[in-house]
Amino acid sequence: MKSIANSDLTDLANYLEKFDTVIIILPLYIHAMPGIVMKFIEHLKPTSVQGKSIGFIIQAGFIETAQEFLAYVYLKSIENPLDGSLICHTSIKR
To answer: Which CA distances in Å does 18 have to 15, 35, 47?
Structure first.
């Protein structure tokens, strides 16, 4: 288990190469996911996630689902820039 907050993001992105499956757990803020998670995603390269399954667990406390849906859409959108090699699953807990 690694913490994004306590890691060099480039080193952490390279560390993913050791695993077939990665689960990223994050809170959801109003209208945004944490910036450090977005920065980490920007450090991912197709070669570091090729053939991997990456899952996201989003903790949100909102009554409405619009906030969660926007995060889901963003996370699904990273599949294509990573050459479609990423299998992205997202679970949202309220």
So the answer is: 6, 25, 12
Kindly state the DSSP code that residue 46 receives in the 8-state scheme: H
Domains in the chain, start-ordered, CATH in brackets?
Answer: 4-93 (3.40.50.360)
- How far apart CA 30 and CA 9 sit, in angstroms, is 24
Residues in the chain: 94
One-letter amino acid of 29: Y
Residue with tokens 């980490």: 40
3-class secondary-structure state, position 65: coil
- In this prediction, residue 94 has a pLDDT band, given cuts at 50, 70 and 90, of low
Question: Pick from 5, 21, 4: which is nearest to 13 by CA?
Answer: 4
